[in-house]
Amino acid sequence: MMVRPDKEARVLRPVAIQNAERIPPARQLADDALLAAHDGLEDKTRELNFSLSMMRATLDASRDGILVTDDDARVTGFNQQYVQMWGMTEEIMASRDHERLLSVASPQVEGAQQYLDRVHEIYRTAPAQSFDLLELRDGRVYERSSKTQFVEGRHVGRVWVFRDITEQRRAEDALRKKARVLELLNKTGTILTAKLDVHLLAQAVIDAATEISGAKIGAFFYTAAAEGAKGFLLQAVSGMQLKDFDTCGLPRTGALFDLTLSGAPLVHLDDLLKDPRYERPARKDGFRAVDAPVRSYLAVPVASGSAEVIGGLFFGHPDVGVFDERAERLVTGIAAQAGVSIDNARLYEVARQAAEEREKLLESERAARNEAEQMSQMKDEFLAMLAHELRNPLAPLRNSVEILRRGGVEPPELEKTRAIMDRQLAHMTRLVDDLLDVSRISRGKLELRLEQIRLDDAIRSAVETSRPVLAERQHVFNLQLPDQPIILTGDLVRLSQAFTNLLNNAAKYTPAGGSVQSHVVADGAGVTVSVEDNGAGIPDHLRDRIFDMFVQGEHNPAAPTIQGGLGIGLTLVRKIVEMHGGSIRVENRRDGPGSRFVVWLPVAQAASASVLPDVATGTGQQIGVTDATFEPRRILVTDDNQDAALTLANLLGMMGHEVRTANDGVEAIALAESFKPQFIFLDIGMPRMDGYEACRRIRQLAQDPPPFVVALTGWGQADDKRKAEAAGFDLHFTKPVDPERLEALVGSNF
Questions:
Q1: Measured between alpha carbons, how far is 312 from 258 in angstroms, rounded to an integer?
Q2: For the segment 612-629, what is each residue's pLDDT rounded down to a tens digit?
Q3: In total, how many domains does the chain have?
């Protein structure tokens, strides 16, 4: 339904009037509200400005450098401490570009590229927070931390905080150094009070003092007086190898070095090269070193409790002015403590050495006493064995003499008796000869008559000598010699003696009917001679001692009749072989019981077998020259042993000669002048006048033709033979003389 206009106007008018009445109060209310809002805004603005001013003042008052950046590395805030810490300019800061700030800061940091890489990594990974330690090239140390910033829950950037901890670090380092010094001092003190080894003490002292003083190298020179030498020896070094010390620059000779070791107070030089007393060490090639790696120098003497200088501590550093008063105090204290400790160690070492010497003397005394007791026992056993061995041949000799005394003996029995006497006399002669040889060995008087000989001559001679023993035991003997003769430079008699002893020894310990073999094998440098048997063998406990004096194998019941001896045969063998430049060893047979003695001898370098005499066949030079037709001789026999003189005279008389006897040198001279003998046999040891003087007096008689004078004596050493030759003797025979040699000399009508 439509409203008429007049009616609409009537309705709206009151509303419009009513609204018009409400507008002024509302406007007033709005104006009042706007004014209140303006006043509130101004208050908030003032509060915000105040807060910002307070925040800026707080940031500027902070000792930390603060930098604020957004995610695009744009600088949104910083404080002056940051600018000062990194030396930034207003232009750089105005750029608001973090990369430009990094270009200024990174060159100041050790490891600039690593510094930049780390910043970029933080931007890339956006960790909630980070922490890094920055070491600057000028020695400063910064702690850098960063943390992401959020406003109303939205990430707006990162705050970087830089804190200078240089002084803190230095304080911590100083504290650590102090703790380390205390630790070293405590450790060194413990070592100095607990150790008594001088070398360990010296090394501990120089290691601790070098580190405590701040030196790069240190050396400890210690007196060698305790070792019986003079001067100072380098005992220990620190900071380098001992072999490199000569090139380190520290003085080891000259005025500076002597100054410390003479007991002068501590020497401290900020620059060693500026001191005129310094002598640069020489290089190994003899020239002076051009560059001395030591500039700062510190040295302090080490004295004992009695103020005796026993060494010195020497320190060096390549930089100038490194050592301070604190270093002086510390090394001086260590030196004082070291002096007392090393002095104590020296005294302990002297006491220990004295105790060791005393123990050695006691041990030597005990060993000497045991050896003396063993030697006494061995002497008693040897004398008992010697008496036994001498009585054994005496019994058949006495029985044989009694048989001859009773007479009426048939020729076959007489020949058997003579053979028995001959064997027993030969056995006694060998015993005496061995005893004399052992005496010569013990006094170093055993001599060789070296000449070029054939080895087979020595071996065949030994076989002939040992044949009766081998035959008596019914041993099978086999000798293998090379086809070509082997030439040695040696003593034929002594080598024959050695091989004879080896063969007799094999026969001695091999049961009747056993086997003895000898093999000779030559090589380029020498020849090996082996003597092998299938007897009892060498017991293990005797194998290492079998060549020692008076050592014998164990009794063998299977061969009782030929055992005995004095235990010196193998000793003689070893000595003779070694004097010929050879060696001998013993071993058990591998294929059964028995022993094998192996002798090695060097061969002559150049020799001709064709010019050597054949000893085995009896050719060569003989003693004396006899005519084919017998001619009786006038012979004088002189011996203070009347039985010896009488039996020799009877023997020579039985050969058809005219014989006179004398019993001392005076009688011999008188008979020589009246009897005019052609041969004179003179004993040496006689009363009134010995044989040497008697021979000289007989030579002074100037008889024409002169008699042939023979020394017939029990003294048979080389010196005795030289004396006999000097006195005028023509020959020297050792008792008992072989009748065949005697007959070859004077001749016989038998």
A1: 10
A2: 444 443 323 333 444 446
A3: 5
